[in-house]
Design brief:
Number of helices: 5
CATH class of the largest domain: Alpha Beta
Number of strands: 7
Largest sheet: 5 strands, antiparallel
Radius of gyration: 21 Å
Strand content: 15-25%
Number of domains: 2
Shape: extended
Helix content: 25-40%
Strand order of the largest sheet: 3-2-5-6-7
CATH superfamily of the largest domain: RNA-binding S4 domain
Structural class: alpha+beta
């Protein structure tokens, strides 16, 4: 039986973010890097940056939240979500009571602003005709 492939000493940032399940897909991780939402060791990082164990990654999430993680291990291949959790240590501080209340209010506001249903094909056509002035 052949030995399993040795674990790499370093891997691309976008691959690590995807494999560690911090982003759903590699393309989402690449997009976040392009938009400057990912920092490694305090510096904004591009998708091709190399990540090694010991590096600290900070991800800017929606609504001003920041997620911090320390890299504990690297791999290029997808692994189960439970095993992926072992690739990093979550350093994100617990939210304060004020932040929890603010998030609750944001959810309530978004729910009140969001339409109850998405327009169907017929409604979209009617809206398009109104906009075009027909």
């Amino acid at each position: 039986m052949a030995d399993p492939l040795p674990a790499p000493a370093a891997v691309r940032l976008d691959i690590w973010l995807d494999v560690s399940c911090l982003f759903k897909t590699r393309s989402e991780a690449q997009k976040a890097c392009q938009l400057g939402k990912v920092a490694v060791n305090g510096q904004t990082a591009k998708a091709h940056r190399i990540v090694r164990p010991g590096d600290e990654v900070e991800i800017s999430r929606p609504f001003g939240r920041k997620q911090k993680a320390r890299v504990l291990g690297v791999t290029e291949h997808h692994i189960s979500r439970i095993d992926a959790r072992a690739l990093y240590e979550d350093l994100t501080p617990k939210p304060t009571r004020e932040e929890i209340e603010l998030r609750r209010l944001e959810r309530i506001y978004r729910a009140s602003v969001t339409p109850l249903h998405a327009p169907d094909k017929r409604e979209r056509r009617q809206r398009r005709k109104m906009k075009e002035g027909e």
